[in-house]
Protein 1
Amino acid sequence: MDTGTDRVVALVDMDCFYVQVEQRINPELKAKPCVVAQYKTWKGGGIIAVSYEARAFGVTKNMWADDAKKLCPDLQVARVRESHGKADLTCYREASSEVLEVMSRFAVIERASIDEAYMDLTASVKQRLDILVDKPIAIEGLMSTFVEGYPQASEEEEEEEEEEKVEDATAPKDALRIQGLSQWMDSLPPTSQRTNADLQLAVGAVIIEEMRAAVEKDTGFRCSAGISHNKVLAKLACGLNKPNRQTILPLSSVPQLFNGLPISKIRHLGGKLGISISETLNVDNIGELSKFPLEHLVEKFGMKTGPWLYNLCRGIEFEPVKPRQLPKSIGCSKNFPGKTSLDTKEKVQYWLQQLSLELEERLTKDRDENGRIAKLLTVAVKQAGETKTGGFSRCCTLARYDAERISTDSLALIKSLNCAGNHQQAWSPPFTLLHLSASKFMDAATSLSGGITGFLKSDIAPTQQKPFLSSQVPNGSTTQQPGKRPGEIMSFFQNASKRTRQCHAEPPEGAASTELNNQHEKGEDKKPGEIMSFFQSASKRIRQGHAEPPEDTATELNDQHEKGEDKKTGEIMSFFQNASKRIRQGHAERPEDTATELNDQHEKGEDKSEDGEDDRIDSHSTIAEQVVQTVLPLKTQDCSPTTIQTDGSTHTIIPDDPCSSATSQADATIHTITHGGPCASSERSPAFTFAPEDYIRCDSCGQEVLAWEMPEHTDYHFAQDLQTSWSSSLPSSSQVPANISKANTSDGNSQCKTVQASRRKSATSRTPAKMKKPAGKGVSIDHFFKKS
DNA sequence: ACGGTTATAACT
DNA sequence: TAGTTATAA
């Protein structure tokens, strides 16, 4: 029978992690009763971590700091930092990364939470046994290790165990530890018996001792650990001797331990399932579960849980340690309890903006550090009076890392929840929770090459393009994906360049004539080399390990552009090769072509949801966007909104929004020349008319664009997106956004337009947040393309 | 008014 | 399938 003892699995848990982080920042707090609390106004703030000294006073997590002070008057209270008006856990996440980094030197790890990680030590143990040859395992290598179930009480001692134990405190505890450890080690076979389960646990424990020592040395943080054959046992073991200790749990000690261990102590059984088990089977501890036949458990708890329980109560479990150091989603949320609930649209918008700002910051950092891009945005809310778990959530494609965009998309996703109606200032029922999160990460390089493939495709068959639907989220595997072969990337550039050249070669007569076109023509012909220079500067930054650029990114780019007139593509290639290498290493997975898949989906046709309302938003994700987001973690000056005239109505234009009906100069160009075209408003009188077959729908913004203008149009998306990636938008100062979307309507298919409209408006109040811009004339992307 | 997050199984 | 909800930590 498979008892799953072939693996060595450890769970490492940082001791009161947040407290340790605060103590490292402020050493005054060390060795004192100390808690970390967030917020202050309500009862002194809620406690989220408690030092062991404070626990001795009965202070616990989820207690109000004011109440804790009553139990422990000398309690030190560290506060969670706040930014964007909410608790900000950044420093704990960073500390967590430090720790995981160290742990990864010893084995593959699975990040279980901010302060916990599982490790599969099986391979490391085998390796160590090779080194160990025939030498015995030294007890000195296990100085903080307990062995659960040891020392084993002898027959005679069993009666008196009560009296003996209660006597002293700490000193004898270690004596007992050593006694148990020695006893167990004496029973181990020689290290030549490499496959012995307990021997492997012992070696695993030695490795974990070393690992924990390294963590403390390199980060200053202490932790506890459990070492056993599976995740459940490791987790259980970890909790047996905290803090700053580790515990081996041999399978042979499981029956004793489980006999009398409440079901709720087992991972996954701490909640309703655990209760339902004890009620259904009328049992109290896990050990008792072993009395039930498999069939019975399956009947009661299903095909998945039944067998799991059957094995589990025998100490057997097979859940693998998933190799994953990074979180699979990045999110932020804030509660608005009781009277603080959000009861006006302005409050909702304001807080969505705050959350969006944090999300953008974190996503951008994540992209820079981890080379991946989230593709799905989820917004969740809870309304006053709702049950604990009850909530509402909707999602859409996360097209760009842009706080403003995230914010407006989020609002669009939830605005149907406002019973007061969209035009009212009131919001009811009020929200008691807002949550934003980004997930479905795609590897940056894959995203890039996938986009390129799509780009190529559109190169060949530019018609037939349908707007990118929000529901069509790229289906990346949950982890990273391998990069494309450089050859493909190369061919992309060759094709793209060729096409760019061609298009600029002969624009049809009379097709372009506006101010915007003029302006465009003023600039030199865009050569592929110029686009390349963007990639070069970007790739350089990436190779350098870039953070934020100092500031004068624009200048830098210009310089580079000017002198790098004709750089070879070789350098660009090396960037992409680098990128794909980074991807490939460490992550093996999935071979299929995302772009193809996406295109297939396109062709499959429209939104499949047809019933009633659909809050989803068109994404308009472009290849260029993906490229930009992948390669350019840069920020630069923002652009001033521009204003153009379109048949009498004045539009304020957000320069970085290719979705707006009138956006950049490029878009404006299109706007003008497509007067009377398929996508022009019916009330406008055509200035030029072209046959319907002259138009292609822009995959990015959905507009019908004249075929020969498409390359330019695409380039402009690209350019705008570059800018978007540099400027990071949103006023952090503006208390209440002036950008209330009044444009809205209930007409079903104008969801995207509504969003656009509100975004357009909001640009008016847009102020430079992270990057100041010179007052007056904005620096448009053209700036980079032109020699001034 | 038990916060802010993250993960995963179940459900639809 | 993909998206939403429930549950757990």
Protein 2
Amino acid sequence: MKRNLNELVSTILNKINHINHLKQLQSHLTTLGHSQTHFYAFKLFRFCSIKLSNLHYAQQIFNHIHSPNIYLFTAIITAYSSQQNNHSLTFSIFKNMLNSPIRPNNFIYPHVLKSSKERFLIGSVHAQIVKTGFLEYPVVQTSLVDSYSKVLGGLRDAQKVFDEMSERNVVCFTALVSGYLRAGDVECGLKVFDEMVERDVPAWNAVISGCTQNGFFSEGIRLFREMVFVAAAGEGGFCKGNKPNQVTVVCVLSACGHASMLQLGKWIHGYVYRHGLVVDSFVSNALVDMYGKCGNLELARKVFEMDQCKGLTSWNSMINCYALHGNCEGAIAIFEQMVECGSGVRPDEVTFIGLLNACTHGGLVKQGCGYFDMMVKKYGIVPQIEHYGCLIDLLGRAGRFDEAMDVVKGMSMEPDEVVWGSLLNGCKVHGRTDLAEFAAKKLVEIDPHNGGYGIMLANIYGELGKWDEVRNVWCKLKQQKSYKIPGCSWIEVDDKVHQFYSLDQSNPKTEELYSVLESLFGYRSEVMIEM
DNA sequence: TTAGGGTTAG
């Protein structure tokens, strides 16, 4: 009879899709005397929170049970920990559980840890894990490694837990690699990755994504090539093993975009189709971004048009493509299409950075200022320092320095290097040496060790004839041993990226390269020599 | 029932 009822409840839950049906089922179960039966409460809770995404009513189901068991506590903690803004609630439920007769088990800890966003909180859960004897469970250990590595100052604790593990699998290795890369420690991340005996797709993705996010694009691409090589050479050929998936493709396309590697980007686009990968919104947006950054606006637009479910990032990526190409009309047209298409997508702070950049490149001062106002007044977006940077760039390039300075004075945060740099740039264009001196001084104040700023200030003093100041700046630069970071440019030829640094002469073909440049420019140029 | 990997700006 009981078995029949269990089956019946499962069958009904498989068929219903509305909260009222769930309430009816709940009433029937109460009539049958099961209002406090943990098993059914658990079933109803899971259905309500997962299938109906109604955590509010799921909470009521939980509250209705006088003495919830470990399954119900795990279910409610799982539900809250998977949400963005309910971490403190997860924790308070866990505390309530500890105050009840119910003891934690190994299944509940990973969820509690997922909600622990402070180092001291993880430490207290860690102590609880030791106290209750669950530290030997690999999944619990991995959760500790992952959680510690995600909080400020937690990497050493993550490494310590990892070092004390008796058996380490690919998942805990990946958690640690991701931790180092997230913290920007690429060297340690790659070192741990090198130590991995087994590497699966998420492990490769973690290291490729980490390199890309830290600006190590060539390393990310090198690792992608290695992944493809290993997958192709593995048992069963390219059809089996750790083939790059959509996540890999998204990570490596981002690297291709930043490194302007169009040919590789195209090869990956082909790979997506050859291997039947679904072009979801992530893949589509990554392709749009890659084509845009590599200079092929036409293909970027083609991929964008093919996306049937354009989300905020899709629109933003396309706006940024146009902005990058200085095509302000295109950027504005996409923005207008975005707000008028009725899809309910609202612009965010990234949208306006793209739009303001586009207006700056097109010299559309009035429209740019209008978009800044629209962002604040219509969409309630608080301007970030990047928006101020764009606005000052826009005004500075147009020579509207009084307005630019009013914006600087009205900023709710301290102006940064981008803000003063934009103003300085405008001053140079319009010959406002007096204001340029002011901006350059600010830049030197912010970063006294940046030789580039010092040299700019010295040059401005030179233009003003302030030779004592010129001497002072150069003396300080020499004392500090501050040098300007050399300008760098790169080009992709035959699938290889060649980097060129200003004035460097270390390349064995230096003389030959300079001769070519000389024949091109008609004079001895000191442009770029490859490193 | 529990653990690791994804795009856009600056």
Protein 3
Amino acid sequence: MPELPEVETIKNELVPHVVGRRISGVTLSWEGILKEPNAQEFDSRIAGQEVTGIGRRGKYLIFSLGSGELLIVHLKMSGSLLLGWDSSSPPRFTRAVIHLDNGRHIFFRDPRKFGRMRLLKDSTSIIGRLGPEPLEAGFTPELLARLLSKRKAPIKAVLIDQNFIAGLGNMYADEALFAAGIHPLRPAASLTRREAWRLHRAIKQVLSSAIGDKGASVTTYFRPGGEPGKAQFQFRVAHRRGENCPVCGTSLERITIRGRGSYFCPRCQPEP
DNA sequence: ACCACAACCTGGCCGC
DNA sequence: TGCGGCCAGGTTGTGG
């Protein structure tokens, strides 16, 4: 599932192949992948544009175009962007193909059809509400502690709220809570100052380490060249129900919080 | 402002 | 071999 480390990796690995190229056209194999504008207008506005840069905000990928417009892509749960030379044999579940002027193509593959792309003149409506970027300097322990003190919901639910912090998803929230020794059902405001600081450190560590491993290939995530990431091998609790805790040996548990599977160690992360 | 939940989607896996 | 049920979970919209 693409969270911040996966989207960051995709961005980094697309840049050398895509920035400076022109988009000769886009083929929609499934029109629902385009959120706005309509297909006809999209085609006329994007054809011939140079990609001048690729950025990331939270889990959004942002392609800057020569006209100043932005192509904003969200991969949701099962999307990937794969580079290839042969558009006559796209990967299975390809929903759109972005054709580049050097004969290369970006295949937007997405089995579950949750992913979307849109063409906008201005990104503020999309990313303006997002919380702070957890790997940037503005995300300080003091800021995290202050934000947490205002929220009564379970800390797990708060961490995956994109308006609270941008980019953290289900897997890395579980990993950060384990690293900080905090039970996922603890009310956010109940964290002590010391716990908030531990959590701040854990979030940064877990995300940076996963970027170093080029993301986690738990189910459908692949890098643009088709290779998997390696971060899943570093997971200590996520998707490991029934396995033994790497710290204390206790059997790891899974509970559902806000409809999301939450994995934790009942001993290292004591009940609220 | 905060909180909670349903809906959107479909493939892969497991047990029977 | 087939089939039903579970699991994966980011965002949006709705309502309290």
